[in-house]
């Protein structure tokens, strides 16, 4: 049974209970919303590709001088409220997948039951709450920069879980505290060279996230753990954990944001982090971001299909400006200066013969985000 089918069945069972409880009430309130990004990206490195996520097989650089595949996507969401306690959500996203296709995929499909205004339970396909932007990492309009820093968010590329979560919110000393505990599984396919993909199964997945909001400040602490298996990579029940801390302060005229994550797996702990901020001047928001990932090794296949272990440590600086030229729409221009560590290809993918590890590369991105 595929992960998409399993998520649909979980949601369908919960939905049946919800509709049964609401059978004698009024028809459910159904709403539709959507989001998207139209973008192009250029990279100075022509022996490998720049991508936005670990799921993309190619991007800007070697494959295309200017690529629309890196940031472009379209998403739609349907929300149904059956009564005060029961609701459901389905979100579908179209973006470049591991095989280069653009087939729509099911991002969320879950049913929610509110036990009380402070306590809720969800079942189905649910967003993993590991990072500050976990619920909106695909919605470019919600972010000041063109894309989330992959040096950090790439620590946990999978974005959802087929399972359940429990959320509890309480007030303390003027702060709002939300604790989410979850468990589930995930099946993902990643690019592996020459149009091939490797399948990764995450089992015994569980975690907790605690978000505290006080005025303009937000702090997140999270823990994720799972057992990873992949036939292609000869992995069997590899323990994998991600511990993350994030914080933001946004009083309105300006903002600061930072996140730190530590991967534990493959026998070592690898930290990554970023810090950024910006200042709003009318419709314009200039911003700056510094990000870094310490050295780690991953298995890849190069153009000759030889499997190799490569280092992907990198540091980088991003500078850009966001222009909110109309309600629900923005235009962003961003420049990235990336410096892979010595002997490292950094976050580059699809390496080709002649690529020089440790060689600095530059990226220019233009993106228009919209919500509706």
UniProtKB/TrEMBL annotation:
Domain of life according to the entry: Bacteria
Protein name according to UniProt = Porin
Record's GO cellular component terms: membrane
- Signal sequence: where? 1-22
Under the heading SUPFAM superfamilies, the entry gives:
Porins
- Keyword Signal in the entry? The reply is yes
Source organism per UniProt: Rugamonas apoptosis
Q: Which UniProt keywords apply?
A: Signal
Q: What is the lineage of its organism?
A: Bacteria, Pseudomonadati, Pseudomonadota, Betaproteobacteria, Burkholderiales
Q: Give GO terms: molecular function aspect only.
A: porin activity
């Amino acid at each position: 049974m595929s992960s998409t089918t399993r998520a649909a069945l979980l949601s369908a069972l919960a939905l049946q209970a919800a509709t049964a409880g609401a059978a004698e009430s009024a028809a459910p309130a159904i709403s539709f919303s959507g989001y998207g990004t139209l973008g192009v990206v250029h990279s100075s490195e022509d022996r490998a590709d720049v991508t936005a996520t670990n799921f993309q097989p190619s991007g800007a650089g070697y494959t295309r001088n200017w690529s629309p595949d890196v940031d472009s996507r379209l998403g739609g969401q349907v929300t149904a409220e059956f009564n005060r306690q029961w609701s459901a959500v389905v979100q579908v996203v179209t973006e470049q997948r591991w095989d280069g296709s653009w087939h729509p995929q099911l991002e969320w499909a879950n049913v929610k039951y509110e036990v009380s205004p402070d306590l809720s339970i969800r079942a189905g396909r649910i967003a993993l709450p590991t990072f500050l932007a976990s619920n909106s990492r695909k919605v470019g309009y919600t972010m000041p920069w063109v894309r989330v820093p992959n040096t950090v968010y790439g620590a946990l590329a999978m974005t959802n879980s087929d399972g359940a979560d429990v959320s509890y919110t309480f007030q303390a000393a003027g702060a709002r505290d939300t604790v989410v505990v979850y468990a589930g599984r995930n099946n993902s396919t990643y690019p592996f060279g020459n149009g091939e993909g490797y399948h990764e199964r995450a089992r015994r997945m569980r975690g907790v996230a605690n978000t505290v909001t006080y005025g303009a400040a937000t702090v997140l602490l999270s823990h994720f753990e799972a057992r990873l298996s992949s036939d292609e990579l000869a992995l069997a029940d590899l323990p994998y954990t991600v511990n993350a801390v994030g914080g933001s302060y946004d009083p309105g005229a300006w903002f600061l944001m930072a996140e730190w994550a530590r991967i534990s797996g493959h026998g070592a702990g690898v930290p990554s982090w970023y810090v950024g901020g910006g200042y709003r001047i009318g419709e314009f928001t200039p911003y700056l971001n510094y990000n870094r990932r310490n050295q780690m090794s991953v298995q890849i296949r190069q153009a000759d299909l030889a499997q190799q272990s490569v280092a992907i440590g990198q540091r980088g600086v991003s500078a850009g400006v966001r222009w909110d030229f109309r309600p629900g729409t923005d235009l962003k221009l961003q420049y990235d200066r990336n410096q892979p560590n010595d002997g490292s290809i950094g976050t580059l993918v699809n390496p080709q013969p002649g690529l020089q590890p440790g060689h600095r590369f530059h990226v220019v991105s233009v993106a228009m985000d919209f919500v509706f």
